[in-house]
Amino acid sequence: MTQPFDPSALFGGGGAGGENPMAGLLAQAQQMQAQLVNAQNEIAAAEVTGTAGNGLVTVTGNGTGEITAVTIDPKVVDPDDVETLQDLLLGALADLSSKREALASEKMGPLAGGLGGLPGLG
Question: Residue span of the signal peptide, if any (predicted)?
Answer without folding.
Answer: none
